[in-house]
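Technical note accompanying the year-one report. For the benefit of new consortium partners, we illustrate the data format agreed upon in the data management plan: each record pairs a sequence with a structure-token string. No post-processing was applied to the example shown here.
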Amino acid sequence: MPDPLDFDGARRALDDVPAPDLWADASQRAEAGAVVPLPAASGDRARRPRWLVAVGVAAVAVLAVGTAAALLADDDQSVETTPTTEPPAATGDPTMVTGGVCTVGITGDPIVMDPGPAADPPRFDPSGQPANQLVAHTMLGSQVAELHVPGVVLTDLVGERVEDVELERGTASVWFGPDFVQVRWFTGGQEPCESFTVTVSGGSEDANRHAAVDFAERILLPSDLRDMGTSQFALGTIEGEWQLESSEVDGAPTEGDGLVFTLADGEATWTDGCNTFAGGYAQTGSADATDLAVVTFTDVTSTDVGCSTNPTAQAVQQVMGADQVDVSRDGDLLVLSANGASLTLRSLAADDGPSAGPELAGTEWRVAALYHGDELVLPRPAAGELAFSFGESRVAWDDGCNSAGGTWSVDGDGYIVITDAVSTAIGCVDVGEGTQVWEVIGAVMQADRIYMDEMGGQLELSDTEGNHLVLEPV
């Protein structure tokens, strides 16, 4: 065996070993895409002594090992800030999320967004955030993602760790919080729904950053949805005015229709034919013909009028009183289902005519009851003298003290509008205590817009202050 320190002997031994054709091997690997091909070496360079090649390879290996060890030992190693995955591509229609005043889409695989913040109490104080802000959250494996539209408002980020990140829509900011990472997209514009923040927690800082950036790439703001086409945008939201077309309880159809449901800007109002309800709502999922969405109604309030129960009112109460309501949409029809009952609503926006209520021209009515909030102002036995008459364009009524009239029409949203109203000016004397008859009738008939609803042959007229007139045909 040659002496390990005998470099001349080592050189002579290597000279006796056949040299591999390194350049031919490299060219084959380049053609396979494994390496970048290098220019062929000149003849004299190709015959360079092989013992120098061996020594050079060993030196490179030692240098690589030493460099790796140095990096591992570096306590100040910075966090990688470049996403390791490409933004997921859209697969079909986006998942639609509605809350507050905003509706946004999320591309990629369907995802369930639960309304509200992920933590209780919330990570960001709601009192310092925009009114009617969309807040929803979801699980991304072991991580939690929280979406705010408009984005979370911060007083300042001075002293905080912030960096820029390039999204497909432009340059956003990444804020590294104590146990979360937040991607912030703000354009400086005045549109409330054109900014957002995505906050991710539950993983390492690097994992949270990657997840937040990837999720931010999936967000479709209202302007993005409009650019995709109005039909797709319309299919993704349940906002608008809807009128009850049919209802079922335990598979059995009920009689009664015409009730109006309004869903707009995160606020919902509806009636069961007796009481009026209002509350907030949040939608998760895409409301179209194939995908099922879920709507959650919150902070619901109602009048408390004592009314006899009927199957249609029961259907409304079972559906709208549920913790979660399943929603599907097919064109102009919206189906709400829960607790064994269902409501099929038709969009009032699809009607060609302006009127969404009953045909009133040429009809006469008398007051059956009046309500001021929960207070029954006028019991039925005393109501017959108070009459309402609708002509082709004029309406006349009696409030129990004065006679009045004006020009009536129905606006594009299905509300009665009365203009050019005139009235006698008799001084009215209070009868008993509490709200007076003429106060309720005057409040309703002088409202800017009068809500109307037909139920079981009766006509209900109401304002936005809790005053209701229940009329029956003469």
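Partners are asked to follow this layout when depositing records. The chain has a mean pLDDT of 74.
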